[in-house]
Design brief:
Strand content: under 5%
Largest sheet: none
Number of helices: 6
Number of domains: 1
Mean pLDDT: 90
Number of strands: 0
Order of helices and strands: HHHHHH
Low-confidence stretches: none
Helix content: 55-70%
Oligomer: single chain
Distance between the termini: 37 Å
Length: about 80
C-alpha cells in the first residue's frame, strides 16, 4: 500500500471527512475552536495518522473533543 503524508488545515480536512465527522468539525469551526482543535490533534497524534482515524475521532468521540475544546453544553445539546 502507498502511504502519502501531507500537512492540511482544518478547512482542507473538511473535504476529506464524511458522515458525523463533518457535523462535529462544523461545530468546532462555528465555535471558533479550529486552532485549539488542530493543536489537540497534534498532541493526540504526534506521529502521522490516517484520515479514517481523524474521521472516527470526530464522528464517535465528539463529546470528548467538545470537553477538551471547552465547547459548551448548549452546543452539545444541539446534537
Amino acid at each position: 500500500m502507498l502511504s502519502i503524508i501531507k500537512d492540511i488545515s482544518a478547512f482542507e480536512l473538511r473535504d476529506e471527512l464524511w458522515s458525523g465527522a463533518l457535523e462535529t468539525l462544523e461545530i468546532i469551526i462555528q465555535e471558533d475552536k479550529v486552532q485549539e482543535f488542530m493543536d489537540l490533534l497534534e498532541d493526540l497524534y504526534p506521529e502521522p495518522v490516517s484520515i479514517t482515524t481523524i474521521n472516527d475521532l470526530l464522528w464517535f468521540e465528539e463529546m470528548f473533543l467538545f470537553a477538551q475544546l471547552d465547547i459548551g453544553e448548549l452546543v452539545q445539546k444541539r446534537l
